[in-house]
Amino acid sequence: MKIHRNASLKNFNTFNVDEKAEILFEIDNIKDLSNILSKENKKDEILVLGGGSNILFTKPYKGIIINLKNKGVKIIQEDENSVLVEVSAGENWHDFVLWAVQNGFGGVENLSLIPGNIGAAPIQNIGAYGVELKDIFYSCKGLMLDSFNEFELKKSECKFEYRSSIFKSKLKGKTIITSVQLILTKSKHNFNIDYKDLRDNLSNTKLTVKKISDEIIKIRQSKLPDPKSIGNCGSFFKNPIVNISKYISLLEKYPDIQAYKLNDSNYKISAAWLIDKSGFKEKKEKNVGVYSNQPLVIINYGNASGKELHSFANHVKGTIFNNYEIKLEEEVLII
Ligand SMILES: Cc1cc2nc3c(=O)[nH]c(=O)nc-3n(C[C@H](O)[C@H](O)[C@H](O)COP(=O)(O)OP(=O)(O)OC[C@H]3O[C@@H](n4cnc5c(N)ncnc54)[C@H](O)[C@@H]3O)c2cc1C
């Protein structure tokens, strides 16, 4: 365990924002958790941090930050078709995907190269290329921050939705997830190449878990900025969901609007399209801007503060509301 007081968070968030934390614990053994929590006794001000790839610090954090680094990947049950795997929260998500791919286990290949740690994956039900965590999720274990009681929540209890879960609503800020259990396929893989880019490049080949993962890595590297060289948190906003009458009125005004039918009543509008059409394509204001290949990604060109990034994001949000009467919702947690 490492303890940092008045610690710089610059290397703990992928926006590379240089805010401070009053106390930061880097914890590799979860047995240390209850000790720290009871000693420090500041339960209301605890923030659990993974890889910092979905969080924007706009001010110094007054309180305890717990950065979980516990490691371990274990197969805990197996039959001829599937494996149940328990992964510690501090494992890097993409390293785990590579482990699954190497072993020929299916289910997470479409989620290749998503930054961050396993422990954060259930928080927003990470998703990409037609697959979401919920599709392979079995349960997660952890501690309640108020009582330090252990919990295990099964899939149906996690209330997974598009980029959301019970950990963003009723249990927001109330838990530390210490491990996640996922069910992966060993045979009869359920490959998903519905996305155009994937279909175009893979439809004439014999699909394998590795081929899909490799293709997704290639596509993502061509479209998204690598946080190691350009500070960002991926998509800053969620794609807004509107009802059918709103969708029809938008379609009448903007025949080229990009949207996906979710069901008979609702459509998901492409936030990237809204941002692009509102004049933000490659927009740069001082240290902050919109990424050229993907307008949903707000980037830190260098030394932007969290406040600058947030105020730029608010400017985008306000403009979209004025233009389309659609309120964008942040995907990134703002602190
Ligand atoms: C380039 C780029 C591309 C991305 N692409 C995608 C994508 O395709 N799909 C997608 O869904 N996301 C994407 N993201 C967002 C991000 O990678 C995911 O949300 C990821 O799961 C965040 O993991 P993290 O460990 O960095 O979480 P953090 O940013 O550290 O934390 C995010 C939230 O989870 C909470 N949290 C973290 N760990 C725990 C824990 N152990 N217990 C309880 N709460 C916890 C935090 O308190 C916070 O609320 C992208 C980000 C980047 C930078």
Keywords:
Uridine Diphospho-n-acetylenolpyruvylglucosamine Reductase, domain 3, 7 helices, binds flavin-adenine dinucleotide, alpha+beta, Uridine Diphospho-n-acetylenolpyruvylglucosamine Reductase, domain 1, globular, 3 domains, single chain, 4-stranded mixed sheet, Uridine Diphospho-n-acetylenolpyruvylglucosamine Reductase, domain 2, 335 residues
The mean pLDDT is: 94
Inertia-based shape:
globular
Main pleated-sheet profile: 5 strands, antiparallel
Number of strands: 20
The helix count comes to 7
For the CA atoms, what is the radius of gyration? 20 Å
**CATH architectural category of the largest domain:** 2-Layer Sandwich
Q: What is the SS-derived class?
A: alpha+beta
Strand fraction equals: 25-35%
Distance between the first and last residues' Cα? 24 Å
Summarize the helix and strand pattern as letters.
EEHEEEEEHEEEEEHHEEHEEHEEEHE
**CATH fold description of the largest domain:** Uridine Diphospho-n-acetylenolpyruvylglucosamine Reductase, domain 3
CATH class designation of the largest domain: Alpha Beta
| Percent helix | 10-25%
Give me a quick take on this structure.
The chain is an alpha+beta fold.
Describe this structure in words.
It is a single chain. This protein has 7 helices and 20 strands. With 335 residues, the chain is an alpha+beta fold. It folds into 3 domains: 2-68, Uridine Diphospho-n-acetylenolpyruvylglucosamine Reductase, domain 2 (2-Layer Sandwich); 73-223, Uridine Diphospho-n-acetylenolpyruvylglucosamine Reductase, domain 3 (2-Layer Sandwich); 231-334, UDP-N-acetylenolpyruvoylglucosamine reductase, C-terminal domain (Uridine Diphospho-n-acetylenolpyruvylglucosamine Reductase, domain 1, Alpha-Beta Complex). The longest helix has 19 residues, at 306-324. The chain starts with a strand and ends with a strand. Residues 14, 47-55, 68, 89, 114-117, 119-121, 123-124, 126-128, 175-177, 224, 227, 232-234, 333 line the site of flavin-adenine dinucleotide.
